[in-house]
Amino acid sequence: MSTSFELDARLLGAAARLGRLGDSHVLLMHDAALPWFLVVPETEIIELCDLPAATHARLFERVHGVGRFVRSYFSADKLNVAAIGNIVPQLHVHVIGRYRDDPYWPGPVWGHSSDERRDAPTIATIRDALAAALPGFEIATDG
Amino acid sequence: MSTSFELDARLLGAAARLGRLGDSHVLLMHDAALPWFLVVPETEIIELCDLPAATHARLFERVHGVGRFVRSYFSADKLNVAAIGNIVPQLHVHVIGRYRDDPYWPGPVWGHSSDERRDAPTIATIRDALAAALPGFEIATDG
Fold first, then answer.
1. Which member of A57, A87, A107 has the closest CB to residue B111?
2. Nearest to A87 among B60, B64, B106 (CB)
């Protein structure tokens, strides 16, 4: 866990920090149209294929923990999991719950955004439910 | 390796089978605008988070083998790796090489398509290069 790691300002602009799981940060996109999370490992490596195997396995344990939470808590029909990084190269994995009747289905969500925003109590409720579902989850103290 | 596994007809309609790596099939999308591969493990499981850990690790070894090939052979600037499956639920991982000057950059490629197609000799050349790069790759005999 590097003390010099800083989350990219563009990720912090688009999403709320919920907390961390080990050396990964978990963020929730502000766009409230869908349950759309980001898992950001503390690494300078940009491509998944360059991660050491143990780091990769740990990252995906976290990604899939978030994914199972999205499926159960938000009753999602399908999970979309992706590492794209064309705009923000800092390695981050999208974990998105999709619905057969969501506004973008069956297309991808990237490139779309709604003006819908969650209020702070709703974000706190989601954060606490995530913390209860994921052993070892540490809630972010700086919001 | 199940003998009853069949690749989804929609994947076979959109992409050429290049071959297999262990229990995963490797396909190349017909759309020639970008180097866009699919890795399809022989499983009935739909979500990555439901794969047993060893199966998951094996799948991503293959995904990342293809990713490193895409980066070196096609000199891609960025890799996009995703499991979406909203249209075709059969588990398949997209591995796409992206360029800062490609027609969709920095947006995602899903939802876009060009009329550009590769001819059979070009596909065979790519397939043979992939086979040379990836130990254990078995070329598809049925085209």
1. A107
2. B106
**Does the ipTM exceed 0.90?**
yes
Query: Taking CB atoms and an 8 Å limit, are B78 and A89 in contact across chains?
Result: yes
Cis omega (within 30 of 0) for bond into B106 = yes
Dump pLDDT digits (tens) for A56-102: 999 999 999 999 999 999 999 999 999 999 999 999 999 999 999 99
Q: Evaluate whether residue A3 is within a structural domain.
A: no
Name every chain B residue with its beta carbon within 8 A of the beta carbon of A87.
106
> Would B143 be classed as within a structural domain?
no
Domain encompassing residue A119: 9-139
Domain at A73, CATH number: 3.30.428.10
- Taking the model in full, what pTM does it have? 0.96
Is A4 a domain residue?
no
Domain assignment of residue B110, yes or no = yes
From edge to edge, which strands make up the β-sheet containing B93-98?
Answer: A137-139, A15-21, A24-29, A36-41, A93-98, A78-83, B78-83, B93-98, B36-41, B24-29, B15-21, B137-139
Question: Chain A residues with CB inside 8 Å of B111's CB?
Answer: 107-108
Phi, psi of B93 (to 5 degrees): -110, 125
Question: How many domains are there within chain A?
Answer: 1
CA distances from B90 to A116, B43, B44 (A): 32, 8, 7
Integer Cα distance of A102 and A104 in angstroms:
6
| Cβ pair A48:B81 closer than 8 A | yes
